[in-house]
Amino acid sequence: MMEGVLEVLAWGLLGTGAVFSVIGGIGMLRLPDFYTRMHAAGVTDTMGAWLILAGLACLAGLTLVSAKLALILFFLFMTGPTATHALVKTAWYAGVKPLTTEASGQPEGTPPSNP
Amino acid sequence: MPPDKSTGRGGSDAVLHAISLTAVLFGTWLLLSGYFTALLISLGVLSLAVSVGIALRMDVVDHESHPVHLTWRIPTYWIWLLAQIIKSNFDVARTILGIGDPPTPNVVTVQPSQRTELGQVIYANSITLTPGTISVELENGEITVHALTRGSADDLRTGVMDGRVSKLEGGA
Q1: Is A81 close to B136, i.e. CB distance below 8 A?
Q2: Which of A1, A101, B77, B124 has its CB surrounded by the most CB atoms within 10 Å?
Q3: Is the whole model's pTM more than 0.95, yes or no?
Q4: Residue-range domain boundaries for chain A
């Protein structure tokens, strides 16, 4: 009984994770510029990856395997934002201008010019 | 990095950081090896001694690489952050699918209220981790943030996350 519940939960998590990953992929294609596409990548990075890992951990049960999956989860938690930030900051300094729909009045960030 | 008395380098804290590093490394060894034989565990202890020795000699074991002072407060913060991330994931997913707010990208700057660099880094990373907002730059005590929609920028401006991180850092 317990096994069955866990399996259903696992497949639910895997399925939802897959859906979020695909949505992130759609966003990569649909959104207009580099920066907005990074947000779409963020969906795949967070919900997509985490739900799939959680699903796999449910399938593995309380074993050393799920402990290792938890470790991978932790590393993603730490390295994900670092990688995203590195990409975005590089683009910013390379002078990629973000599309903005900024109404006047709000201070607008200006990328520093290329040295 | 210049020595900083207020953040407690040296003294008993240094011992605490070394103990923390040892515990984390040993836990990692056990977890990744999965063999609990005398030989493999003693090999683990040996490599542990070498690694900790090198890390201490390199002087990289401090409150930034091992923020032990956050140990008790950080789980609460992670749970809160997780809820935020799930919430904004749904927002961004709806925007992507065209059933939520349309993308209105904008760039805002926020002033973090954290006192330490570690706190500001935690705040900036939390912003990046939350879909819909990415911190582009942390410079001169200001974080430049790219937000996917007006709503996500406004959420950030309320300063709730900022307050949470400041609390995590320690009120004193």
Answers
A1: no
A2: B124
A3: no
A4: 2-93
